[in-house]
Amino acid sequence: MTQNLVTKPFMEVLSGNRQASPPMWMMRQAGRYLPEYRATRAQAGSFLDLCFNAELAAEVTLQPIRRFGFDAAIIFSDILVVPYALGRSVRFEVGEGPRLDPLNSPDLVGTLNNAIDLSKLEPVFEALRIVRRELKPETTLIGFCGSPFTVATYMVAGQGTSDQHPARLMAYQHPGAFAKIIDVLVESSIQYLLKQLDAGADVLQIFDTWAGILPPREFEKWCIEPTRRIVEGIRKVKPGTKIIGFPRGAGALLPAFVERTGVDAVSIDWTAEPAFVREKVQTKVAVQGNLDPLLLIAGGSALDEAVDDVLKNFASGRHIFNLGHGITPDASIAHVEQMIKRVRDYKAA
Hints:
With 349 residues, the chain is of the alpha/beta class. It has 16 helices and nine strands. The two termini are 32 Å apart.
């Protein structure tokens, strides 16, 4: 009898089944390095207009899949849509990044809504439904959110800073107020991610871009524990949900993150020490990463050698090939194609 089951290589890795050629995608794979993205962005207007136009957000989500045939699509959105749905003012200034009304004192934290308005995020859910219909069955669809700590860093400062010290300072000086922000973001993230699963996401990723600025005690309190609560909250409603964590810059704290959060995979940046990750992390969960995005500008033999290094280091175990962070706007499409071919041609022993 013929079976019509379609295998998703990406999901196979997360389920414990190593693939001979690792599945691959790129963080920020829908982005300004693609001319088709730039055209759609111009059609949408502002960045947030693009995020909240379901048809156009779905279109840019699908563009890198059509062009490169990646094994996973990640829905086009932004981590700061959660503060927006909590009633905060969120805007993106050209050339300057996000701007929010800062929550930089306990009194201001008291103005934060306790409950997320998921109706404001309906365009994200509709974009997921559109993409799910358009994707081939073997292609995984990723939903995501920012971690509570990383989102809180922007909410406290009202913008990005070089080291996000306003949030760290508030956590030291006013831990109760900072904990309230984190608590609201934990519950809001659980609800947001559950709705993404309902709309068609196969797997979830939690981006903690600023985790690496925290010392160990604070890392446990503001990175590990909130992530653990989100993972637990999601699986309480939807058992077996596959979740990827990305505590960028965690370094030696990666094993503790993996052990205590319950994630199925961890994304690592390009500074991670390979032997340490193989021995202390990849023996427990799948590893995603970790090519330096600058190599997609450099190209040539440097790119080939670095791709080979990533594969040599991790492809003998459960591995999803990715970058160590998002692709940059000045990356070369030809270099992306060069990287893809080298990964696709690789077959682990």
